[in-house]
Amino acid sequence: MASTTSPATQPTPSATDPFSLQDLHCFTETNGVITTTMFDIPGYRVTKILGAVYGLTVRSRNWAAALGMVLKSVAGGELKWFTNMLYNARNDAIGRIVAETQSRGGNAVICLRFDAGEIGGGFAQVCAYGTAAIIEKIDDGGDVHPQLISQ
């Protein structure tokens, strides 16, 4: 099946990229909402706090994957299926806080944090939480965050 995206619109890797383009599974589209773990965003002013937002997801492992992970744990090494499941859970949790922020009229989530754990014997939960806010740019000389570039 041919790709509908032309090579000219594909991002090109550079030596300064902090990630491999193969790692795009850890990217969540935020629809213009800036998400940050910081208490503030350089070049922006928080004009209104909209409250705490949460995104929670619970995932289960299927029995075949669980058996494979048990066998893999004997030999040691990364449990890639479980890692991928947690990346997907993290992305879902971020997507949910972004949706909640947008429903409140916000354009940023500050103080973003994650919590992850196991429920019972085969369920993994990931919770993303932060503070929804409305921000405005105050420094015209700074870089524009890629999330705010119109598409």
Automatic annotation (TrEMBL):
Pfam families: YbjQ_1 (PF01906)
Origin species: Echria macrotheca
SUPFAM superfamilies in alphabetical order: YbjQ-like
Assigned protein family: Belongs to the UPF0145 family.
Highest taxon of source: Eukaryota
Full protein name: Uncharacterized protein
